Amino acid sequence: MKDQPGVLGGADDRKPESAGRSGSLEIDEGAEPQTKTSGSARHQERTMRTQRWIHAIVGSLVFAAGGAPAVASDSFSVDDLRCEDLVNPVGIDAAKPRLSWRMEAEHHGAAQTAYRVLCATSPELLQEGAADLWDSGRIETDRSRHIGYGGKKLPRGVRCHWTVRTWNEKGDASDWCRPGSWTTFDMTSSGDWKAEWITQSHKGSATPWLRRSFQLEDAPEKAFIYVNALGYFQLFINGERVGSDEFAPHVGQYDKRTFCITYDVAKYLRQGKNTLGFWLGSAWNRRGAGVKTTPSVRAQLEMVDAGGKATTVITDRKWRAKPSSMSHTGGWKWNDFGGEVHDGRLDEPTWANPDHDDSAWSPAAPGNVSTSAISAEMLQRSRVIETILPVKVERVGAATSAPSWLVDMGKAMTGTFEITFPKAPKGHEVSMEFGDSIGKGGRLNSFRQASIYICRGSGTERFRNRFNYASCRYIRITNAPEGEITPDDIKGFLISTDLPRAGTFRCSDPTLNGIQEMTEHTLRCLMLGGYQVDCHSRERQGYGGDAHSSLDTTLCLLRSDAFYRKWTRDWVDQQEPDGGLTYTSPASSHGGGPFWCGFLTAATLKHYHHYGDLSMVERNYPAIKKWLELAQSKTVDDLQQKFCGGWYLGDWASPQGIDDKKNAEIFIQPYMCHALEQAATLADVLGKNGDAATFRRWARARGEATHQKFYDPQGGKYGSGDQVTYILPLAAGIVPEALKDGVFAGFENTLREKNKGHLSTGLSGTYMMVQYLQGIGRDDLIHLFASKTTYPSWGYMIENGATATWEHWNGKASRIHNCYNNIASWFIQGLAGIRPDPAEPGFKNAVIRPAILDDLSQVEASHDSVYGTIRSHWKREGNTITMNVRIPANSTATIHVPATDTGSVAVNGRPVDAAPHVELVQVQDGRVLLQVESGSYEIVSR
Fold first, then answer.
1. How far apart are alpha carbons 294 and 114 in whole angstroms?
2. pLDDT tens for residues 158-169?
3. Of 421, 581, 828, 866, which residue is the least packed, with the fewest Cβ within 10 Å?
4. Cβ distance 424 to 456 under 8 Å?
5. How far apart (Å, rounded) are the C-alpha atoms in residues 28 and 19?
6. What is the DSSP string of 769-828?
C-alpha cells in the first residue's frame, strides 16, 4: 500500500540489498515462545530439524560428495560494481571516488591480470573512443578494489555511468559488464548552499509539516534534491513519499558534522504546479549528539529541463508551516525515549498535494543551526528489512473494563508498527506500551516505550509510527475501542541499516544453529541509524564496549565496510583536544573504560584485515595515537591510571557481578597492553616504524609492571583467579613464557571444574576469551561453553524463549542487547575456519583453518568477501574428514588440512603433489598446509 501523507498507512516492504545474495539453504524454524517450556522437547525438535537440514545439504552441496567437483568452463565476467563500496550511490562527497568490482568465474586459477574502466555522462557513450569522462586504458594489475577515478571533475547533478572489462590469467578479455553509476554531492560547507535552514514557526510542535509550491514550464529532464536536516525528515513531492529510507538522516556527532542526503526526483515532478513537502520529527536534535534545537531542514532542489533551462527551489522563509497530527512523548534520554501521539482528528491526507489550501498556514521560521562540516552519509540507509505479523493477540484484563489486548510479535524487533483499531468515538484515546519481556504479575518490561492514538471518529482508525520506534516483542494495548483486534490488524516493520548479509552458518549441533540465528537477528535489531547500539529500548547509545565485543561477529555476518568507515569517523569527530575519547558515539556522559574507547583502535585494525581499506587506517590513526599518548601520560610506575572521564568498568555483565569491580584493575592493565599492540600493528601497516617501536616498548613495560603487581606465584594466577583474570594476561602477552603453561592450566581447570564448563565472563571478558582460545586452537574449550543450555549460556537464553540476546546472562534488564554477540564470529572463523590473512588483507588471500571437533559431525559456512563468496564445509565419517572449499576468482587461500602427512590427503581425487592449482606449503602441528588458487576443492583426509 502506498504511504499516504497524513493517513500514516502502509510501508515500503522492499527487500534489503542483501536479499537473495548468499544462495545458502534457509530454514524457517519458527519462533520460540517467550515463556519457559520443556527444554528437552524443544531440544529434540531442534535436533530433528538439524537432521533434516543435514540430509538436505548433502544432496544440494555445490561439491559432489565422494568425488571431484565438476570441471567448469573458463568463461568469466565482471559483476558487483561498487563506488565507495556502495551500489549506484546518489550523492557521494568523494571528488575522486574509488571503484571496485568482482571477477565471476568458476574455473580453477581464475584471476584478473588487467582492467579497463570507461566513464561517461550517458550509458550510450560507454564505448571505446566515446567515453567523455574517463577511459583508464588497459591497466596491467590484479587490483579490482578501490581503483581511484581518474577522469574529469564531475559536478553535482550529472550522473557518471561506468563499466569495466577485465583480462584473465590466459589473456582473454571479458565482455563489458552491466554499467553502474554515481552522482556527486559537493556542498560540504554552508557557503556552498543557497538554501536556508528553516523550522516551524510555532511553539510546541516537534513534528511540523513544511511545504512550498512552485510552477514549472516543462517537466525536468534531470532533478536532484539535496536535504540537510537535524532531526528526522520525510520528503514528499506532489503528495508522494520520496525514497524508502526510514529515520533519516543517520545519527552522527552533529556539532561537528551533519549529513546531506541526495535524491534523484525527476520522476516525481511535472509541468505546471508542483509542491515540495517536508514532515519533520524530533530525534537526536533534542540531545545527545552535540546539538539541541528544534527539528530543522535546509534543502536545495536543482532541475534542468530538456531545453537546458535550470531551475532551483530552496528552503527559505517563503515556505509555509503547520503542526502535524503527530507529536512525541518522552524526553529522548536514558530510560525515557517514549513514543508518539498520533491524533487522527488532525490528519490531513492531502497536506503535501499541490491543490491543498495552505493559506492559513504560518510562514516558516529560520532554523537556529550553527555551521559544521556537511557530509554525505556514504552508507546504506535505514530501511524496512522485514514485515512481521503477530503470532498471538489475546484479550486480557477484566471483561467489564475497557478492552485491553496483549500482542506477541513472535520475536524481538526494533522498528515501527501499524495497528488498525475498531471504529470508535471521536477523541477516544488508545494507549500502547511496547516491551521486550513479561515479568511477574504480567508486568511489561517496556523502559517507558509508549504511544497514544486519538481516534478521528470516522473512516479507518489506524496508528502508524512516524518519527519514533520501539524495541520490543510485546505490545499491550489498553483502552481499546470495543470490537475485535486480530493478528491481521497489526504489522511490525523491522528497520535496520540495510547492510547486505555476508555470512551463513549451519552445523550438526542444533544449539549452535539456534545461537547463530539469534545473534544475527539481534545485530539487525541494534543497527537502526547508521551506528550500533547497546539497546534501542532504554539507551540508544553507541557504546564502544558493546560494539567492541560484537565487532568480529558484525564483520563476519554483515557487509560492513561502509558502516565502520562512517561510524569510526563519528568517533574521530568527537575526540577531545587532549586526545580523550568518549565511551559512546554519539557522545554522552556515559562511562566504561579503555575497552570502550579502544573500540576505535580495534575496529580500524579488524576492518583493515577484512576489507584491506588503507584509507580508513590513515584517517583514524592520528586519533588512535593521540588517545594512547594521553593514556601513557596517565601512567604511574608503568600502570594505567584512570583517564577519559575516570569511570571504569571491569568485565561488564559477568554472572558473578554486573560490573565485576574486584577484577577491574586486572582487566584494564592487560587490556591496555593489548590495545598498544593493536596500535603498533596499525603503525606497521602505515610504515611508521618509530611509532610501532614506541607502542611496543610501552606495552612491554606495562606488561612487566602488571605481572609484578598482580601475579600470585603461590596460586599460579593473577588477581582473583576467575576466568577473566587468567585470560586477559594470556591474551595480552604479559605472562612470561615459562609460566604460560601453568597459567593456562589454571584457566582450564577453573573452566572445567570450578565453573563446570560454563562461562564466568561478561561482555568484554567473553570476547577476549573467544578470540584468544580461537587463536591458539583451543576451539574444544569454546565449544564446551558455547554448547551449554544451562545457566549461564546462550543456550539458556534460547531455552527460555529468547529470540535476541540479553543484557545479562540471567535475563534482567534489556532482552534485545549487544553484550554477548561475540560468539557467532567463532562459528565462521573457528568452526568453519574462514579468516582474513593479515599479510594479504581484504581476503586477497583467505585462511581456511577449520576446527574439527569430536562433538560435531559437520559444519558448513560462507563469507561474502569483497572478491566473492568463500565457502567452507567439512564433515566427518569415521576416520575420514572431507572438506569442500570454494575460493572466489582473483583471490587465493591457505588451507589447513587436518593430517599428519601428505600421503593421507587427496585433493579433487588426486595426491597433493599431483593436484592442479595446489602447492604444498608445509606439514606442521597436525596440519597439512596447502596454498590454492581460486576454484572449488574437495579435500579428503584419512
1. 53
2. 999 999 999 999
3. 421
4. no
5. 15
6. HHHHHHHTT-HHHHHHHHT--SSSSHHHHHHTT-SS--SSTT--S-SS-SSSTTHHHHII
